[in-house]
């Protein structure tokens, strides 16, 4: 049995990670939970050891896998501590507040493990796997549409750490849209250039509640990306136009095969595996058992964070941004807002 620990006993742990762990209960056991609220930690997984300090948990339990479910500003320090203790880490998104933090986390990996993997569960449903497996059979990639039009109101932003650059790193782009962006990039590959706008149009927060971008991929294809928390009718939508076929996905927070459509007669996923934490966790456990780097880690995890960094850089500077510009000396490498004091749009007072 793989011995797992959870740090952060809030809603994402309770509603997504615990059910995923139960689905793989024949392979993984939760031996400990850490949370600043001892009562909450004790109620998450009955029977697991309870801690209010991750360091003490690591020293006492020596888990094989640590699942990080805390607010974003805590991720880097906790992931580095777990990796340094020899545990693999599966970290909720956004894994870090910046590329600099993400690179510091990756630097704590060992040459053959432990590894850091990021929760990008929407990439791993059977529809997405089938689309990637088709490869060039659909023709040259031409156009991608990537839309995350969700709704988050006052109650959501009442949580103190939400909507702040210092504690979340950014707004809806890095918090919500990154899921669809990661899936888009897993199909069309690396991006080369991005032109973006973003704004705080309605919500009383520091960060953006809307962003839009145009992207050129390294393979020459182009794309349009829209992210919002102001949309009363919520939807996650992806469209991939290839030379010989169109493939579309409509869902909200997860999908099965029925959510996909295609004009191609080649479209026929061999199984129906939903996008879920349980699906990604299974692949992570497979990699652990083989001693191999898991999916959504290393360069594979960095791609989406690099994309949102480029989007913010373009939105703040008002100019196109090339992927090659996002080096360690870029102001956006250390902070998604680039250290710019004023917000890029004055949508509300």
From TrEMBL:
GO terms for molecular function: nucleotide binding. Pfam families: GFO_IDH_MocA, GFO_IDH_MocA_C3. Residues 2-109 form the Gfo/Idh/MocA-like oxidoreductase N-terminal domain. Residues 136-235 form the GFO/IDH/MocA-like oxidoreductase domain. InterPro entries: Gfo/Idh/MocA-like_OxRdtase_N, Gfo/Idh/MocA_Oxidoreductase, GFO_IDH_MocA-like_dom, NAD(P)-bd_dom_sf. It comes from the Bacteria. This is Dehydrogenase.
């Amino acid at each position: 049995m793989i011995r797992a620990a959870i740090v952060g006993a809030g809603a994402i742990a309770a509603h997504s990670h615990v059910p995923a762990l139960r689905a793989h209960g024949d392979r993984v056991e939760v031996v400990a939970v850490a949370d600043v609220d001892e009562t909450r930690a004790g109620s998450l997984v009955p029977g697991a050891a309870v801690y209010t300090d991750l360091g003490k948990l690591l020293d006492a339990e020596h888990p094989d896998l640590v699942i990080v479910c805390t607010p974003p500003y805590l991720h880097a320090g906790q992931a580095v501590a777990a990796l340094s203790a020899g545990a693999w880490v599966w970290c909720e998104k956004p894994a870090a507040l910046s590329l600099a933090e993400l690179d510091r986390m990756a630097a704590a990996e060992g040459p053959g493990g432990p590894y850091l993997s990021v929760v990008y569960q929407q990439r791993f449903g059977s529809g997405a796997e089938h689309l990637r497996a088709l490869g060039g059979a659909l023709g040259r990639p031409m156009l991608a549409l990537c839309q995350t039009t969700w709704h988050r109101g006052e109650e959501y932003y009442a949580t103190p750490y939400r909507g702040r650059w210092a504690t979340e790193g950014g707004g809806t782009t890095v918090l919500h849209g990154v899921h669809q962006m990661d899936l888009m990039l897993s199909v069309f590959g690396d991006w080369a250039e991005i032109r973006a706008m973003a704004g705080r149009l309605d919500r009383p927060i520091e960060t953006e509640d809307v962003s839009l971008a145009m992207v050129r991929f390294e393979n020459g294809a182009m794309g349009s990306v829209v992210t919002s928390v102001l949309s009363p009718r919520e939807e996650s939508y992806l469209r991939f136009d290839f030379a010989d076929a169109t493939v579309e996905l409509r869902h909200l927070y997860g999908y099965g095969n029925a959510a996909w459509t295609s004009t191609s007669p080649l479209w026929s996923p061999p199984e129906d595996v939903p996008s879920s934490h349980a699906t990604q966790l299974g692949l992570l456990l497979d990699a652990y058992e083989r001693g191999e780097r898991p999916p959504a880690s290393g360069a594979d995890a960095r791609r989406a964070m690099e994309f949102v960094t480029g989007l913010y850089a373009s939105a703040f500077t008002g100019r196109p941004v090339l992927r090659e510009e996002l080096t360690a000396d870029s102001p956006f490498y250390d902070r998604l807002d680039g250290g710019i004091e004023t917000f890029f749009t004055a949508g509300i007072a």
